[in-house]
Amino acid sequence: MARYFAIFLTFARACLVRDMTFRANFILECLTSLGWMSMNLAFYLLVFTFTSEIGKGTGWSKEPFFAFVATGLIINSVVQAFFMPSAEELTEMVRTGGLDAVLVQPLDAQFLLSMHRVDFSALANGAVGVGLLAWAMSRMDSTPPAVAWLLYPLLLLCGVAILYGLVIMLAAATILMGRNQSLYDFWFYLTNFSRYPAEIYSGPWGGPLRMICTFVIPILLVVNVPARVIAQPFTGESWVGVACAVIAAVVALVVSRLVFQRALARYRSASS
Amino acid sequence: MSGSLEAVRPAGPLQGLRTWWTMLKICLEERLVYRGDFALGTLMRFLPIVTQVFLWTAVFGATSRGDIAGYTRNDIVAYYLLTMLTRAFSSMPGLASGIARSVRDGSVKKFLIQPVDYVSFLLAARVAHKLVYYAVAAIPFALVFFLCRSYFPPVPDATTIAAFLLSLALSFLLGFFMEVTLGMLGFWFMEVSSIVFGYMLVQYLLSGHMFPIDLLKGTPTGIAGVSLADVVHWLPFEYTAYFSSAVWLGKVKGAQLVSSLAIEAGWVVVMAVACRVAWWRGTRRYSAFGG
Lengths: 272, 291
Hints:
Largest interface: A-B, 39 and 34 residues
Number of domains of chain A: 1
Oligomer: heterodimer
Number of strands of chain B: 0
Number of helices of chain B: 13
Largest sheet of chain B: none
Structural class of chain A: mainly alpha
Mean pLDDT of chain B: 85
Number of strands of chain A: 0
């Protein structure tokens, strides 16, 4: 484990050196990333000029909702920084045969394929997320209990683990299918469901969708559970959400590992 | 180099048409190679709209208002669906970055020596892309619109439909020329990805893709009596998503409809000229070496 951590630090250092070599580009990437996020925040501010909360009686008024958004920013920035850049390269590696070079390395293939590239500019959104969270929490009427603050980092990790599992399963699908750029678009479209509180998915269509996105593909647990713990009253029911998120994270990691191993076993080289 | 292109340009309109048709056929075949991936990608594009529908349903559920900026909940749902249709005409994925890449890697130089006009070739390729897209997307579009038919107001009169179709055609040309102009910045900057991303941000916000521009009518600009929506009205962006959808929903009528169509046509001409000027000036400063 220590060896893998040291190797990961070497990867991260190399990526940081590369980013700092092209500093102007790095700053531009940070700015464009922040621009995208600011635009979404502006949209939410606009929405709150027409309503006091998202969904009647849901408790997602302005400040709790921005705490929700901040939680999503933190989780997504970690995934975008540490896992997505490597996963995005996989499609071309499978198609061109570049994957062969990875498979002959004396290291775990999943580790190499999912963590060899780090995009530090993606962490800019996470930093803003922390600031936004501080702003939202300081303006809320009630302060979360100490247990909520203790659980929050753990639940953030669970959210990251669920998304990592999803990325790995999509990567496995890419290996099986040879080339499928749409699968990564699918990742973005799927995670889109996690951008809003689960309460908005109600009614004859929303109810089943909420069930699917909670228990089949647990995308709704990623942001909702940690955000709910700190931005909504902490009750006994909150523990059910916590348990679901922890179980979903463990299942996502285990299942994605198994699926990835099976996909690698069926990989046929495309190189000469 | 492009001066010599004039000498070998095909003579006569019939020959030109045949060249254009050949380019279209090549691009159609190229598009159909990865048709499975293409079809899957088309279906995926409906997913984000689902969250928008639920979000706005929750917003309307929490407020006592019957409408927001003149849009009922049904209008908003219909608006987002129509925006999907409009964007199917005006969005040009990969066009600007593809042009910039061809400048960077030197592949654009073949258009300087072949009797093929680069912008015409790009237009043929994009028409082919869109034809394949409409062929693939027609069924999911028809299905979604049929299932959501209760959200739509009654079908508008023939004049509105004609204006809607004209605005769609213009939005295609506007989107195309804007992206080509952007891509040709590659003659001046080696890497345009950040500029393209910045453009996409502005485009997404001000085109009405994110929300109806009417929601900005109450947003002040600092100038008395001028809202942000008024400013956006004079920019080209809203004509690539908001305008056509608003026309179908009857939000833009009469003299305003005519003047808006004129503004849209004006922007098409401006951007077509801009892209020609960029090509003309760019190829004069361009140098390529090797095979």
